[in-house]
Amino acid sequence: MKFTACLVGLIAVLLPSLSASAAVVAMVDLVNDTTVAAGGPLDTTFSSAITANALTIYTNSVADAYLANTSNSRYGNYGASTSAPGNGGGPQPVILKFDLSLLPGFVGGTINVAELRIYQNAGNTGTRAAGYITTHDWVAGTGTGGYPGTTDPSTGGVSFAHPIGFNTAALRNAENGTTAPLASWGPNSDSYFTYGTVAGNTAGGDGSNSATDSDGMVALKGSTNKYNVWSVTDIVSLWAAGTPNYGFVALNGNNWVYYTSDIATEAYRPVLFIDYTPAVTTPEPATLALLSLGGLLTVAGAARRRRRA
After folding, report:
1. Looking at the domain assignment, is residue 189 inside a domain?
2. What is the b/e burial string over 37-64, where b = at least 16 CB atoms within 10 angstroms of the residue's CB?
């Protein structure tokens, strides 16, 4: 009985811990800065981590673009634009995708709290709501306006008229094409992105889940010194559970102007803050067997030493 109890205790010590510690991370594109700027009504988990310089920062992890929806601007790519302006006719969605594959143990992990922060440079009217894209993936592109005019999806970029970002010099001549280059075109109504909603949220909107809809999206948590913050725990939890991550959408109408990840002042770039408990990988049977053998040998050695004494 004593032998068994001792062995069980040793194996428990030798096995990798089956309860991972929570990780507090920030996903933001930084080049010169080494810390994330404070700002906005963040959860105390994140504001305290910023103050204590305790955030784990993942850089080169953001792709974003804004979707101009006026006149011929809807054909242009703005993947490298430094700002995303709204307009008097309605919101021009900003889409943002964070590379969550960089986070160890993210898939299958538990999201304790997650917040999205975007800096608002100007504006004072319109809907500010956030949701997530459910339809398909997209390419941010490197344009600052104008027609991309390329058949290469790595250099083409998403636009209001091209939902994926695979662009050519051809004019639209097919509805929901299935082969390139027309496969990149959305329906002629331009409501090519479907935005996922979060139960219980009623931020307004027209209920159509079109590119300007905000029904059921996450309402703005608050804004301090132009830092807008949304609580996106439910959305990030879906991605951790296996829902494809096609990114966030933030509506910036009617005259809000948001800064993107290409703005020179790095403190103004979008940030996704996540406090999560990583998924734990259970040791393989072979590993358990080796650990058990190690425990047996340790116990046997201890028993021999006691007999000699």
Report:
1. yes
2. bebbbbbeebeebbeeeebeebeebbbb
Question: Which residue range forms the structural domain that includes residue 231?
Answer: 21-280
**Tens digits of pLDDT across the chain (309 residues):** 444 444 344 344 444 444 568 899 999 999 998 999 999 999 999 999 999 999 999 999 999 998 887 777 777 888 899 988 876 555 678 899 999 999 999 999 999 999 999 999 887 766 678 888 887 788 888 888 866 545 455 556 788 777 766 544 444 445 555 555 455 555 544 445 777 766 555 444 444 444 445 556 788 888 888 999 999 999 999 999 999 999 998 887 667 889 999 999 999 999 999 999 999 876 665 554 544 445 444 444 544 554 555
Please report whether residue 286 resides in a domain: no
Residue 48 CA: distances (Å) to CA of 10, 37, 52, 225: 37, 12, 6, 18
11 within a domain of the structure (yes/no): no
Domain count, the chain: 1
- Residue 292 in any domain: the answer is no
Q: What is the pTM of this model?
A: 0.78
